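Example record used in the benchmark description.
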Amino acid sequence: MNPFSILLSYQAQVEAKIEQSIAALGAKSKVRDACEYALRNGGKRFRPALVLMVAKTLGKQVDASEAALAVEFFHTASLIADDLPCMDNDDERRNMPSLHKVFGEDIALLASYALIAEGYRYLAQNSETLKQQQVSFSDRCDHLCVLAIQNVSYNTGLFGATGGQFLDIHESNLSLSALRDILHKKTVSLFEISFVLGWLFGGGELEKLPLVKKAASHFGMAFQIADDLSDMQQDLKNGRKANMGLLMGVEETVKMFHKETVSFLTVLQELDIQGQELEALIKTLIQKTEECLAVQG
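Model output (structure tokens):
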């Protein structure tokens, strides 16, 4: 059973959009086929589903599917890079050979570049889609696209996923503050992109963007802490030190997890949106984490 069954309808939308996007990748080539392989290599589609869910909370019934697709492209590109021998050197991704094991490192790099570029194209395309639909905020769609590009650039660059990957590889003094910095840049950054894109293309009030980012920060950190708690034994076996549970111990890590979830629910109330699904999602994460801890004993 999928513990995040609340996401199923959104995930189905994302899968359908991915299939459409593959047809738009152009004539067959090794790079094009590598992009298709990476996009079709499973995954929960959690982050793009969040884009659609956040947009829905605003109640304007607009199409944010291209922005959701962009998030999946950015995320997939980051996974391709993470798996490379010069990075995490992973031979498998989701029980399948990593992209570079099938197509070679050169093609893997080019595929990651292509997916990033396509992601930005889909952001621009979503802006045009909203204009064509004559949504109530169509007069500011160009400005929303600029804000989206600014946010994605920040969160995928040196202050986000790229900087986080560097620290993950090269950080020698893994203190609590250093680990939080790594997790924020590597994981929370992509959740911020999801929340912000859903808010922007869903027609949210721009004045509330700082609150949206705050909500994303608490949600993303709770998600990563939960992931760390469930991966403790595996990370210990593999000698991976960047795990909150291993660094702080289970009891303190669980306290931090609950602090983040409570903070997320508080910010959700401040946003004053139809956030029942987001509330249910974080409560599902809490339940899943508690069940995992109970099994671990």
